[in-house]
Amino acid sequence: MMSNHSSATEFCLLGFPGSKELHRILFATFFLFYSVTLIGNTVIIVIVCVDKRLQSPMYFFLGHLSAAEILTTSTIIPVMLQGLLLPGMQTISLAGCVAQLFLNLAVGTTEFALMGVMAVDRYVAVCNPLRYNIIMNRHTCIWVVIMLWVFGFLSEIWPVYATFQLTFCKSNVLDHFYCDRGQLLKLSCDDSLFTEFILFLMAIFIIIGSLAPVIVSYTYIISTILKIPTASGRRKAFSTCASHFTIVVLGYGTCLFLYVKPNQTQAAQYNKIVSLLVSVVTPFLNPFIFTLRNDKVKEAIGDSVKRSCQLFKSGIDVLQNLLGDQKTDNAYSEDSGKTLYLQMYWYSDSGESVFRSLSDEDGASFSFIPLVSVRMGKMMSNHSSATEFCLLGFPGSKERQHILDTFFRFYSVTLMGNTVIIVIVCVDKRLQSPMYFFLGHLSALEILFTSIIIPVMLQGLLLPGMQTISLAGCVIQLFLYLAVGTTEFALLGVMAVDRYVAVYKLLRYNIIMNSHTCIWVVIVSWVFGFLSEIWPVYATFQLTFCQSNVLDHFYCDRGQLLKLSCDDSLFTEFILFLMAIFIIIGSLAPVIVSYTYIISTVLKIHTASGRRKAFSTCASHFTFVVLGYGSCLFLYVKPNQRQAAQYNKVASLVIAVVTPFLNPFIFTLRNGKVKEALRDSVKCCCQLFKY
User: Fold this and answer.
1) Is this model's pTM higher than 0.90 or not?
2) Which residue, of 44, 191, 589, 624, has the greatest Cβ tally within 10 A?
3) Tens digit of pLDDT for each residue in 475-492?
4) pLDDT tens-digit readout, 293-316
5) CA 532 to CA 486: how far, in whole Å?
6) For residue 538, with 0-12 CB atoms within 10 Å meaning exposed, 13-18 middle and 19 or more buried, which class applies?
7) How buried is residue 337: exposed, middle or buried, by Cβ count under 10 Å (0-12/13-18/19+)?
8) For residues 320 and 316, what is the distance between their CA atoms, to the nearest angstrom?
9) Burial of 245 per CB tally in 10 Å (0-12, 13-18, 19+)
């Protein structure tokens, strides 16, 4: 209970009462709803953007409605999931509460205004079909949507300001799963009757003001439809409005009960149920309402699925062509069927760390082998966070020299191959095009990527014992590793769009992919890659690493760092998982969409030689995409990053060593222009050496 009329600086959210088992069930249910909402509405946005059949005002507004639904759920559900995941009451700062309430109300207001505009659009389509393209032209639609978003955000500034001008001194506990305005007014010790009345009038104005065009539009629509003589004609006319009418009934029905009432301090549990309908159920149903009742959307999704299947099939064919008759010989060394297990022990007296090797066939036979005396190798105590870390690297002393030689050769070839690509792209006039400009930056990224990891790994293989790395060094290594990797994903998406323009819009290629555009796209990719990884790295190192300071890896891997934390890192892992999903899927989406259009265009070419020539321009990029995304989707996109260390090391080696090593070969052996440029460069070097 707050005393002396001091206002709360943070609030506690009670969330949902019940046992841990109930919380787990609710978490799984709401997470499923949230995932389907994100995927479904994102699919609608993507197909509206790329499918020519959906380039009309109705679907333009539908895309913005789906974006508003994503924002609505993302404002509420992640906070609610955190409360279900963590024990006890969840706290939210005053600033966080202000931001959450403002975004929830602003996006909700925009959504109501958008539904009113969509009703007017349906009225024009049914009642004035001949003038539809004139009235609902592109310029009008864009300005209407801009005004809706501006109105939605501006109209909620004063209501939120007035709410938080009150003094919350009765308590700081909100009996809700988010910062609900009704619960905030309940906690106020000021006389909030006038404020509640003004907020009630504003809610009336916004909801009824956006509902009025809906009612008027559907009155005219129904009267026009009833004049159609045939039943099939009436059915066809009303089918264009059925989806919008359904979402209007759901949206306004719940919100009229929730917000338009003089007294907002109603029963908390009943309020929670209606809030769930508004923030969870309605956005979840939106994709189904607008797809199951709409033939054009269903056709667009069906065609997208077919193109994706064709893309997958073509990708397999390309990989087979690239591999040719090459065969890979896998040699597995077996040690009489014995499996070796390694365990690390810390001795509190001397700090000496040892490995115990134990054969599963001979359980009684084991030996203790002193490894190295390390200063920080002891178990951390008193919850003091580590100031440096020890990297275990690769166990085993016999193979260290062989592993060192192998990785050094890989690293040398990677540096030389990618440097050669950068040089010939810069000096050869035949390679002065957007495709090779992006390829040069990709090669630069591959050099940076390997140079962040491999030198540290080689040092660990060269020196005896475990390798140590400072906390600052670990932060820098992890940040650069993730930032460069994110930039590389963004660049792969850009290169896919470049190939789409080259194949699908060949005559306009030089206009669209001009020098100015390419430079700015690359700058944005680099800036996005580095900015997007600041918070994930910051959140990782805000944890306390007190269990140990030994990382079972050859670099500062985030999964291993989370494993050493003595804090409850479950929510942090969940947020990092969502961010990895956003980055990888966000950069993969333009790749999928671009190759869908590319393949559809290539398949229309009549001759086999023409199809082969057209697709050969994309084969190298497609191969690299499969390698890069395939390994990274396994390594990073998973809720639990505490997987088996040895399996994690193998995947990390594929990403940090094998893929950058293969990059020069992929982009040279299948590219005639690059091979010609290399051949001419070799001739010039030979002539220079001769002179």
Assistant:
1) no
2) 44
3) 888 999 899 989 988 998
4) 667 777 777 777 777 667 666 655
5) 8
6) exposed
7) exposed
8) 6
9) middle
Domains of the chain: 10-293 (1.20.1070.10), 340-373 (no CATH), 400-690 (1.20.1070.10)
CA dihedral 87, 90, 91, 97 (to 10 degrees): 160
Least confident of 118-132, 304-318, 572-586: 304-318
**Euclidean distance between CA atoms 410 and 654, whole angstroms:** 12
Report which residue type is found at 473.
G
Tokens, residue 388: 């440096």
Nearest 5 degrees, angle CA 277-CA 255-CA 43? 55
Which neighbouring-strand residues pair with 373? 352
Angle among Cα 566, 568, 572 to the nearest 5 degrees reads 115
CA 15, 16, 18, 20 torsion: positive or negative? Answer: negative
> Residue 358: helix, strand or coil by DSSP?
strand
Residue 114's pLDDT is 92
Longest alpha-carbon distance in the chain: 96
pLDDT at 688: 62
Backbone dihedral region for residue 95 (phi beyond 0: left; psi -120 to 50: alpha; all else: beta): alpha
Q: How far apart are CA 431 and CA 672, in angstroms?
A: 11
> Does pLDDT of 323 surpass 70?
no
Residue type, 235: R
Tokens at residue 144, please?
Answer: 């209407």
Could you read off the pLDDT of 388-441 as tens digits, one per residue?
888 887 766 556 777 777 888 888 888 888 888 888 888 888 888 888 888 889
3 phi and psi, to 5 degrees?
-125, 165
